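This follows on from our talk about sequence and fold. Go ahead and set the record down below:
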Amino acid sequence: MPSKKVSCRIGVDVGGTFTDVVIDHAGGRTSAKVPTTSDAPEAGVMDGIAVALDRAGVAPERVDLVIHGTTLATNALIERKGARTALLTTEGFRDSIEMAYEHRFEQYDLYMERPEPLVPRELRLGVPERLAADGSLLMALDEAAVAAHAAFFREEGVEAVAVGFLHSYVDDAHERRAAAILRRELPDATICLSSEVSPEIREYDRLSTTVANAYVRPLIAGYVGRLEAALRERGLGCPLLLTMSSGAVTTVETAQRFPIRLVESGPAGGAVLARNVAAEHGLDTALSFDMGGTTAKICLIDDYRPQLSRNFEVARQYRFLKGSGLPLRIPAIEMVEIGAGGGSIARVDALRRIVVGPDSAGADPGPACYGWGGDAPTVTDADLMLGRIDPARFAGGTMALDAGAARQSVERDVGGPLGMTGEVAAAGVSEIVDETMANAARVHAIESGKPLAGRALIAFGGAAPLHAARLATKLGIDTVVVPPGAGVGSAIGFLSAPIAYEVVRSRFVALDNFASAAVDALFDDMREEAEAVVRLGAPDAVLEETRTGYMRYRGQGHEIAVELSARADAEEYRERFDEAYRRLYGRTIPALEVEVMSWSLALGAADRLPPRLSLAPPRAAGTPAGRRTLYDTESGGPMEAAVHTRADLAPGVRLAGPAVVVEDETATVAPEGFDLTVAASGALVLTRRTPA
């Protein structure tokens, strides 16, 4: 975070269904949840800020910082609403982004559809030029060809050009010269170089990332400009920072230059929140569970650190099938995303099975119970029928839900075709979505080489606390933590995310021929580049760096990430690689050469975890605010539950399930067999009485 003390900060998370706003101020924390305005996201942001400021009694000029996460870049890629983009590449390689990996991601689907490239073939042009893999010159750049292609792009109304030459990650001279010609001939166009956006080996991934960056850059630049203007117009003249997919925040300038790094900014904020919650409660292994209106996101946390990745896919043809989207090489928190949110639509398929998602009713028209024109049954409609949601308190009482419309939709589209009562059909919808999420978590853990046993489930997002206990039961997890403000968890996470930046370089180094001086010089150059970015937002902060090598055995096709210490030698590199490889695959391969393909350096303002909190002394709970009938999906029958208001529960209070704890943005369900304790942090901790 910036080095100056900030007294009033705003975190904003724009989701597919709702826009969440959180204000940290002298009087505490105030939040607001408003529908996302898809056509003009900045309007929803400003609506949410206005509501939150009014509730907090805070004047706009008192706000010192706004931290923002947005799905705008992701939506533009999915909906193909970016700039008219061209690609300039090495002659003979114009079709690399269409040939992709040359494999079938869905082997048995005869009608499999590959993702369409963001650049049509007529706007993908090759230039005579060639560098060897070591950066040596094989063919000089044909500058006349670049100028001729620029004239063609101008005639075609091109708004952005991605430049990606072969082996430019080793030497970027040709790309820089081509960019100079393009800027001269196309002064109004956006120019993106692969040597700046993704200077890494593997041309398909590098070109895909660079093209995507060029495609969304004009849109993001315009959106951020409009948002800054709107903030100033409302009297918020404070700095605006944006959250990246890595969970760190960066400046507007960097976000506008590399907007592709923002694609998973919202879920990343949630992972930062989960990490902090884990630290406060001494949970060194945890599972982050974020369930909102459109999707659910699951992330593994070990030693208070979310799992990180350099590979990410967006705009999948088969929404949750790996390999069916556009690959991006960006720093990102690794998580699995499932089409399981409050707005996920339920139906009965031809085999008479209940199917939930991945399509969502979203914010418009929304679930049937919203009364906004949607009539398809959703998870939210099922939760309302099961007694988990109070129709009069939804979204802090700003929306009155129509329980009759929810019942009608579920009985018509699910219960009727299967001959079930409404409650049984709603329970079926809930069970299917919970099992879908549980299975995704199991697979993700197996693929990561990490167990789920012994972890705590940290639940946040508007829908997660409703489903967390049942999901934990399915996963054999005995502890669930629902932090304060869970319904706006990602926005809260933004407020504690550090200012940081990561630089990656591809340089082949075999450990059998290791030159420490050359590696140290490479890291020094990367540090200089990263520090130039970080200092814009944190000019006086103490900085910390993390070094990573992407290593493999000779002959393997892909690398694993290995954290490195500064000024290490080949022997230490080998030891750390063996440790990481054994954790993933259970063994190492003796006497086989190890090589490093790429290097990364992450630099950021010192990121301090919150201290572990002491236990709160036990105290008795007050009188329940009421009672409610819940339909228990595990036992298959109704049960009476005490209803408590979260604001009335002091630290140390202990409740026995079944119970429901309600708050403005969500509700926490503690079913039979769970005890609920209020921690010193204000978090609700659910514990199974009979651990698995």
Observations:
- The longest strand covers residues 594-605.
